[in-house]
Amino acid sequence: MCPRLHGFIAGNREKFPDKFNAPVPPFGALDARLLIVGLAPGLKGANFSGRPFTGDYAGDLLYPTLIKFGFAQGAYGAHPDDGLEMRNARITNAVRCVPPENKPTGSEINTCLDFLKAEIGAMAQLKIILSLGLVSHKAVLKATGHKQSAFKFVHNTAHEIGNGLILVDSYHCSRYNTNTGRLTSAMFEDVFKTIKSL
């Protein structure tokens, strides 16, 4: 469906034949009440491991935070057979395939919207969607039938988006954002405090 991403994955299969190199499926049960939506698989993270946010820095912050707040149990070992289990939470991405330079195009994001729509629709107990970053925020709005201007992306802000759903925004837990101080561990934990309160 996305020729550029298909070609990129094909090239990575040649370079890294022992890695996952395919569209990355969500992690967690469909009956969860919390859905976490990231941007796209990282080249040497989820694209290699086959599990969202697994094997890169973003997962090093995300998963311990999920464990701390009761949304996951076990120990995060940065590989898909580490025994970690999600609890009442599910993780997915706005774009399922790894993009070059971690930058999907607008058309690639739009192509993947049908998968995000279907996932949200299949989650009968869903109450809160956590968007990690602006791209995720916009994708969730589109997937739920809203205009981009309907709700502004603001870190640690909750938006009631209809149908009993609440959209909570956070800066992405990427190494870039944490290295620059845009997102600290305390700020990220505050987002989960907000979610727990909701």
Summarize the structure.
By secondary structure, the chain is of the alpha/beta class. The chain has helices at 3-15, 46-49, 57-68, 106-122, 134-143, 175-179, 185-197, and strands at residues 34-38, 72-73, 85-86, 89-93, 128-132, 158-162, 165-170. The strands form two sheets. It has a five-stranded mixed β-sheet with strand order 4-1-5-7-6, with helices on both faces.
- Please trace the helix and strand order, writing H or E for each element: HEHHEEEHEHEEHH
**How many beta-strand elements?**
7
What would CATH call the class? Alpha Beta
CATH topology (fold) name = Uracil-DNA Glycosylase, subunit E
In the CATH classification, which architecture applies?
3-Layer(aba) Sandwich
Q: How many structural domains are formed by the residues? A: 1
Description:
- This protein has helices at residues 3-15, 46-49, 57-68, 106-122, 134-143, 175-179, 185-197, and strands at 34-38, 72-73, 85-86, 89-93, 128-132, 158-162, 165-170.
- By secondary structure, the protein is of the alpha/beta class.
- It has a single domain (3-197), classed as Uracil-DNA glycosylase-like domain (Uracil-DNA Glycosylase, subunit E, 3-Layer(aba) Sandwich), CATH 3.40.470.
- The chain has a five-stranded mixed sheet with strand order 4-1-5-7-6, with helices on both faces. The chain has a two-stranded antiparallel ribbon with strand order 2-3.
- A hairpin with a 2-residue loop joins strand 6 (158-162) and strand 7 (165-170).
